[in-house]
């Protein structure tokens, strides 16, 4: 069955804070979805409700058409891994091998061979207690628990936090490789947008507990362009447009412009010796979530 998630007018309130504020969203089909938002925008809260960790204060959260909270028929289909090193906090006294065994018992689609492969790849000593692992190794272990669960709906909430850059890139590669080999819905939250964006197929951007956009990553990147070439020509071309970012290097410059470019504009840019590339998601994210643009 193709995985689906639907949120209808979803709300989550803590005592004084509305973390998810009437959010309506449908995610349909396998792929890597990026859940992007600023600090405190409600990513963790939204994932917690979608995974049945928390009861919604209002609205509905469904996975494959089924309500999630306290629903034993659907919960085994969902795996939420939260916040890297903290995820395995309850297993600190256990050995890595015990943590893997526990996951094998709990997860119906657990792939033990794949878990072993990842444990070797990330250089984790399975005989150590979890408490003896470094922060980055604990994050890697949490990510392994998420990937090897092969759950039809897997939510990875900043699992890479604590990993160094080579480990994070190895994790992104692994995510991409495994999602192609075993298509499922993988939802990755992040504010390291630059790093994660190359592997995203769809982007869900939230802000202040509300949905800002849900779009195919390619369509989103076409919402603007990076223009580069001789500084004067770049300046002429971007004049009168919304410029998100500008860089100058000697006599060359590059500028990120927001807003779709007509085919005639693109042709004109090329004839003037300018190069056009898609807009970086990071720049769009910063622009769309800036106070005055909210
Ligand atoms: N247990 C809690 N009690 C009270 N307020 C909370 C609780 N957890 C989160 N909040 C508040 O809810 C809002 C959303 O928090 P949430 O952790 O979902 O955001 P986030 O997008 O995951 O943030 P970050 O990127 O910093 O991890 C914030 O204002 C936060 O202070």
Automatic annotation (TrEMBL):
Signal peptide (UniProt feature, chain positions): none
Keyword field: ATP-binding, Nucleotide-binding
Pfam families: ABC_tran (PF00005)
Domain (ABC transporter) ranges: 5-233
Keyword Cell membrane among record annotations: no
Entry superkingdom: Bacteria
Keyword DNA-binding: no
GO MF term list: ATP binding; ATP hydrolysis activity
PANTHER family: ABC TRANSPORTER, ATP-BINDING PROTEIN (PTHR43158:SF5), SKFA PEPTIDE EXPORT ATP-BINDING PROTEIN SKFE (PTHR43158)
Name of the featured protein: ABC transporter ATP-binding protein
Species for this entry: Halostreptopolyspora alba
């Amino acid at each position: 069955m193709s995985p689906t998630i639907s949120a209808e007018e979803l709300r989550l309130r803590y005592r004084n804070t509305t973390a998810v504020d009437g959010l309506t969203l449908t995610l349909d089909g396998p792929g890597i979805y990026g859940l992007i938002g600023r600090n405190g925008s409600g990513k963790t809260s939204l994932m917690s409700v979608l995974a049945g960790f928390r009861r919604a204060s209002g609205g509905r959260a469904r996975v494959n058409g089924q309500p999630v909270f306290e629903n034993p028929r659907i919960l085994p289909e969902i795996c939420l891994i939260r916040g890297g090193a903290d995820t395995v906090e309850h297993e600190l006294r256990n050995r890595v091998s015990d943590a893997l065994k526990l996951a094998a018992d709990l997860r119906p689609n657990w792939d033990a061979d794949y878990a072993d492969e990842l444990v070797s790849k990330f250089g984790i000593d399975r005989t150590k207690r979890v408490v003896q692992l470094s922060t980055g190794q604990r994050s890697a272990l949490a990510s392994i628990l998420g990937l090897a669960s092969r759950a039809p709906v897997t939510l990875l909430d900043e699992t890479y936090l604590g990993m160094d850059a080579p480990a994070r890139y190895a994790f992104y590669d692994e995510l991409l490789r495994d999602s192609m080999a075993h298509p499922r819905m993988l939802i990755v939250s992040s504010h390291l947008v630059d790093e994660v964006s190359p592997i995203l197929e769809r982007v869900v951007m939230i802000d202040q507990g509300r949905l800002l956009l849900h779009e195919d990553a390619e369509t989103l990147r076409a919402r603007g362009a990076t223009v580069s070439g001789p500084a004067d020509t770049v300046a002429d071309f971007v004049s009168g447009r919304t410029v998100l970012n500008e860089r100058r290097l000697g006599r060359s410059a590059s500028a990120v412009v927001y807003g779709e470019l007509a085919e005639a504009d693109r042709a004109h840019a090329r004839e003037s010796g300018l190069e056009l590339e898609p807009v970086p998601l990071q720049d769009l994210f910063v622009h769309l979530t800036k106070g005055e643009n909210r």
